[in-house]
Amino acid sequence: MCGIAGIFNFPAAENAPTEQQLTAMLTAIRYRGPDESGIYLGKRIGLGNVRLSIIGLSSGQQPISVRDKRYWIVYNGELFNYIEIKRDLEKLGIRFTTQTDTEVVLQAYAQWGPACLQQFVGQFAIAIWDKEKEELFLARDRVGIRPLFFTRAENQFIFCSEIKGLFQIPTVRRAVNHRGLSQIFTFWTTITPETPFEDVFEVSPGHYMIVNDRSVHSQQYWNLSFPEPRDYSTKKIEEATEELRDLFRDAVKIRLRADVEVAAYLSGGIDSSVTTAFIHEVEPGVLNTFSIGFKDKAFDETAYQLEAAKYFNTNHTAFSCTSEEIGRYFYDTIRHTEFPILRTAPTPMYMLSKKVREQNIKVVITGEGADEMLAGYNIFKEAKIRRFWARNPQSDIRPLLLKKLYPYLPMMKEAKTTVLKMFFGYRLGETESPYYSHLLRWHNTSRIQNYFSDPVLAGLNGYDPIDGIGKSLAENFSKWGDLAKSQYLESSIFMSGYLLSSQGDRMAMANSVEGRYPFLDHRVIEYAAGLPESYKLNCLNEKFILKKMMKGKIPESILKRHKQAYRAPVHTSFTGPGAPGYVKELLNESIVKAFGYFNPAKVDKLVEKIGQNGQVTEMENMALAGIISTQLLHHFFIQDNIFVSPADKPVNLVIFRD
Amino acid sequence: MTDIATVKEQLKKFIVETSFVPAEKVKDDTLIFVEGIFDSMGFLSLINFIEDNFKIKAADSELLEGNFESVNAIAGFISRKLN
Prior knowledge:
The structure holds two protein chains of two kinds. Chain A is an alpha/beta fold. Chain A folds into four domains: about 1-185 and about 200-220, 4-Layer Sandwich (Glutamine Phosphoribosylpyrophosphate, subunit 1, domain 1), CATH 3.60.20; about 230-375 and about 490-560, 3-Layer(aba) Sandwich (Rossmann fold); about 395-425, no CATH class; about 570-640, no CATH class. In chain A, about 40% of the residues lie in helices and about 15% in strands. In chain A, the strands form three sheets. In chain A, strands 10-8-9-1-3-2-18 form a seven-stranded mixed sheet. The radius of gyration of chain A is 24 Å and the shape is globular. The mean pLDDT of chain A is about 95. In chain B, about 55% of the residues lie in helices and about 0% in strands. Chain B has helices spanning about 5-20, 40-55, 65-70, 70-80. In chain B, helix 1 crosses helix 2 (about 40-55) and helix 1 (about 5-20) packs across helix 4.
């Protein structure tokens, strides 16, 4: 696991990429690779890497080259099936000089070109320079576990694992993208390849790019895809359960490949219990596990976490955080997310990876992806109930089913039918909409755009991010079943754009910890996608097949418990006596006005209302987090607070010159 | 008019396929909610199925336990609606 950076010169570029430029980019992301670093400099190319060594500890310094120095690679990630691919390449007569997966990736590309990606099981961001063709190849894993951003400035193509790396190059423009902001204030993330910054894009998940003198071309090589309902697997549930079990076991097994210790997170829910159960099965022995709880009991799952730890007899480290700590660490959080966020939930993940790293652990296995692939989220049930209700919109009984979905929301407890109709009745009848499942959530979230300043709103000129979604949908999306559609929207937007990045990679790598996600093995994803909807969401019983598969293998209480969303306190982290000083500063009327994104009077009103100890709504919580994080984004990235000092260098730097 | 035996067969097939219980456990007079074959959430799928398959609409006033407690009860409800 690592961080990468690079610069490609188009013909009109005046100066070759320099050691100073690459060094600055790498220094900005050096926490991604605290063990080693390296730079390759050619006439038209500069590649850089900071390395967190996990496989081939002593032989993995990057960049490396093969085939008489024709191909050069910098690489962030893991190719979990590198042993198998290496064997295939060796049969073709290829000799390897290191024990790393990096060399396998490079040789696979040299051998098969971009088609090599089809064989890769892994999580990666890759940059390969072909000196002979003078061509740069960039690729990102299927669901976007590892990040990769790029921009163009003055005849140079510049890329980096994180945006702050790009901004170290003085010719790169730094401006917040208001459309991107509007997208985040609707979907919680931008729509790929856009980012919150003008002219900064990401390599989209499941895509590769070819950059040469003629063009900058982006090509999709994989997409989450579902069969039409009539083509679902006809296997009996017992058989499907066994097949999923075998597949998942292998997904866990190859994720335990590492030359360092692999640990696991326990959230207290089903998914991380499942991953832990399989780790035990594949590699019996002492397993280190970690969990985070909250002093605020409304959010805390410690009891279940400890129960799981006891059940699996792991060496468990539990710690809990307070609202004050969340408020304090939210500052660092945004330096790392590089995106505004509407919740504080990433911050405890950042604090958790800090604890993990303190115990010298570099790799953790977690349960991300199960809720998307096996339909665990409430939004899937909500859509199903709304469809049911829409068939008889006058019914007072049908909407009562919605009450069961959100027991943790205070306003839902006493909700009567009339209130439910008010909450959930939005565009109830539009069941033909391709986004029916998400219309309500997006609409609710987008209301926080009311806090935008007049100039921002005027600039957006009625822009509605939902209108743009159509372009990013899979080809035959319209033919899929209702659940498949909502799984796709949830995975391709929220999971890739927010969960795996702001709450995933960025929070773990900030402390040099790599997450591994067996549920996001593409073989598991593809298998789950082919199953009938009733195997996943059975009536309103979520993750049905997974629960069936794990009966007797994880604690019964966890198997049966009501699904609880992972959440962290918002307004109590930013207000009250323990509120962090930066919040007061950034919400100060003159600062809000100077930064220009929000309406100072409305922000004042929001802060005042929250301060009055009244009940704070979900929308107000989202608005508060969104406003503070956007202000922080400006503070770090537009004001000059992310530049590295020329005296700073990444660790153990080696330079290769052409 | 749909034959009541056919209605029952269709209902049983649906219940077995949705709940994954063995077919022999779903008899005409099995109390499908009491036996835990369906829970209140399963009710949603059942009503959906009945409405789709038999082209009828269930009003709030008809969403009574007595109408849906068993295959016999559901079949009776459907035939009353169809007639």
